[in-house]
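Tokens in:
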């Protein structure tokens, strides 16, 4: 009789625990909705600044944030030839700003940060990145000038952006510094995929390390730092894989997945390195 009672009591505890977890999830989702509604009600329009926004994933980020009602500062190296961005600006003349920025040029970053000194940046989105090409990364024939360019773009640039735009993010409502990383930056994945892309992989591994450092440094200040991963996506960046018939994800789907993951990030999950499914990528 005592065993039956204990078993029944244990089952009740499990049901109670699961119910509390479900309730907590509902409250969490509701809080996101309430905060968004409150922001709209008080007239606050969130802003994202996106690097490398003239094409591919960066351009799709701009499109989807604009569709959500956000203000977008879209930066790229050559805005004068960013035809797709110009067409998008004609559609959203009051909400899309196009500006010049090369993330390898730190003086440009400082000037841009000063220009937007009075602008709150809710999501600083480090998207600009380069692969370095395949021929340049063949062992025995490494092109070290290319390696420097990859590191300056993929690793040092995002860290400099975070440093320069820290006050803009700190004073915003969403307070997020997000960087587009890659599962190629996972050291654990090397053992599954083999050796390749020395420059690109190491730049993303180093990027993950500096961003995790930043996440823990800024956690007490309420700023969320995280890395998101689009997966193999059908952009110019992945053209060589597409030519070989490798199945690639649609850009709009990849960006939608990353935006969902960005939205659900909290200060408790700062430092996350997320796959497009929202799961932690192994370091």
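Residues out:
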């Amino acid at each position: 009789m005592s065993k039956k009672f204990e078993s029944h009591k244990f089952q009740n505890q499990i049901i109670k625990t699961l119910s509390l977890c479900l309730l907590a999830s509902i409250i969490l989702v509701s809080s996101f909705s309430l905060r968004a509604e409150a922001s709209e009600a008080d007239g606050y329009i969130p802003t994202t600044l996106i690097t490398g926004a003239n094409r591919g994933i960066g351009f799709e980020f701009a499109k989807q944030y604009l569709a959500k009602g956000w203000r977008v500062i879209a930066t790229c190296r050559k805005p004068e030839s960013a035809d797709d961005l110009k067409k998008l600006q004609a559609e959203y003349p009051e909400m899309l700003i196009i500006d010049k920025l090369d993330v390898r040029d730190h003086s440009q970053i400082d000037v841009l940060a000063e220009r937007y000194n009075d602008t709150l940046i809710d999501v600083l989105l480090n998207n600009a990145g380069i692969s370095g090409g395949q021929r340049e990364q063949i062992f025995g024939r490494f092109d070290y000038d290319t390696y420097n360019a990859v590191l300056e773009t993929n690793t040092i640039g995002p860290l400099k952006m975070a440093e320069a735009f820290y006050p803009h993010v700190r004073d915003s409502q969403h307070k997020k510094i997000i960087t587009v990383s890659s599962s190629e930056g996972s050291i654990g994945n090397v053992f599954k995929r083999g050796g390749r892309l020395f420059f690109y992989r190491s730049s993303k591994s180093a990027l993950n390390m500096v961003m995790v450092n930043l996440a823990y440094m800024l956690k007490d200040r309420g700023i969320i730092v995280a890395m998101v991963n689009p997966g193999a996506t059908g952009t110019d960046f992945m053209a060589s894989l597409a030519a070989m018939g490798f199945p690639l994800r649609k850009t709009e789907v990849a960006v939608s997945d990353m935006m969902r993951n960005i939205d659900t990030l909290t200060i408790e999950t700062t430092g996350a390195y997320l796959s497009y499914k929202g799961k932690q990528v192994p370091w």
